[in-house]
């Protein structure tokens, strides 16, 4: 129930008074209570409504409000729901961790977005305020998104604007893509380890997940081919550039090979292109979408990662009947992304501030990555960094054999550090103990302090 602070205070005071009243005792009238508490009748009414909702008083029109006394409220029985709902689809443990920023008192050593000081805050404030004054901001856009924004987003993918579908962030794009491109009960193949949000999207769509290992050059093509033969899967989920959590970039040779496999098996590749704008040491490779003219690649991109988590805006780029189905599915769920977000994104992307922002972010991410790598190397000598990422936001860390990552994550949280449990990045059992650390959400002193606290836990 929505209430203001004053009505909540009055409700609390009356609640304490009710403990001394027997059932059926009549409370003072609204005017009398208003005078006693020096509050408006509306505030008193709100407080009484709160007590009524809590089962502490009973309002009788024309007679007044009466105490119900210390009645035992029966515990609700939800046992029937388990049978009605059927088997759990989405792993609640994994879901609770995804996007769990914790609190301001935690060092965000695992978080998939930019720190506030790395976001283009002043530009967003200025552009957002101007966008809010535009008449078209408060009119609906086409369900696929504003024509102007789609034209801008299409350019990097060498796509036609009509092939772009604007969605409320990359996660929504993954859910739409999984649900639309595969039938419930069918199989989606993912690289392993993989982004937990993609695993959740597949579970939400009722899909089975087949995991194929990856190495420093991306998914293992021969094992992918074998899994396509075994499962007859028609959807492959990949992060070709700066994969979360490993930072791996799919090699040029393997890019050609996975597209060829998709063509041979009549399959779709869902290209999660979340980190394209977050390259550090070199420009990101061209999107897979550009090399698949027949529509075997469906790309999902996001602006929430390189700009701000509050800018829930991304896009699905898809060709042919798949694109038409995705656009139809969009209408079934929501008629459009908020136009004010689209207008804000469009103005930022077409201004000089966009390239200046990216240049600054890439430079800062390079510094923070190197600080985190140095801190881990010097303070956690028993841990191993399989690969130093050349883009993205994350550092994948292998811990000594026998380490229980649950215990590590729990102890780290108690010590004020947010760490990603490697278990959540595997659809099946993890082959070794891993944790994910991130360098985009914490400042340099926080990175060093976070690793120092982790090291102190290992010494106990």
From TrEMBL:
<dbReference type="InterPro" id="IPR015422">
    <property type="entry name" value="PyrdxlP-dep_Trfase_small"/>
</dbReference>
<dbReference type="InterPro" id="IPR000524">
    <property type="entry name" value="Tscrpt_reg_HTH_GntR"/>
</dbReference>
<dbReference type="Pfam" id="PF00392">
    <property type="entry name" value="GntR"/>
</dbReference>
<dbReference type="InterPro" id="IPR036388">
    <property type="entry name" value="WH-like_DNA-bd_sf"/>
</dbReference>
<dbReference type="GO" id="GO:0003677">
    <property type="term" value="F:DNA binding"/>
</dbReference>
<comment type="similarity">
    <text>In the C-terminal section; belongs to the class-I pyridoxal-phosphate-dependent aminotransferase family.</text>
</comment>
<dbReference type="Pfam" id="PF00155">
    <property type="entry name" value="Aminotran_1_2"/>
</dbReference>
<dbReference type="InterPro" id="IPR015421">
    <property type="entry name" value="PyrdxlP-dep_Trfase_major"/>
</dbReference>
<feature type="domain" description="HTH gntR-type">
    <location>
        <begin position="4"/>
        <end position="70"/>
    </location>
</feature>
<dbReference type="InterPro" id="IPR015424">
    <property type="entry name" value="PyrdxlP-dep_Trfase"/>
</dbReference>
<keyword id="KW-0804">Transcription</keyword>
<dbReference type="InterPro" id="IPR051446">
    <property type="entry name" value="HTH_trans_reg/aminotransferase"/>
</dbReference>
<dbReference type="GO" id="GO:0030170">
    <property type="term" value="F:pyridoxal phosphate binding"/>
</dbReference>
<protein>
    <submittedName>
        <fullName>DNA-binding transcriptional MocR family regulator</fullName>
    </submittedName>
</protein>
<dbReference type="InterPro" id="IPR036390">
    <property type="entry name" value="WH_DNA-bd_sf"/>
</dbReference>
<keyword id="KW-0805">Transcription regulation</keyword>
<keyword id="KW-0663">Pyridoxal phosphate</keyword>
<dbReference type="GO" id="GO:0003700">
    <property type="term" value="F:DNA-binding transcription factor activity"/>
</dbReference>
<dbReference type="InterPro" id="IPR004839">
    <property type="entry name" value="Aminotransferase_I/II_large"/>
</dbReference>
<keyword id="KW-0238">DNA-binding</keyword>
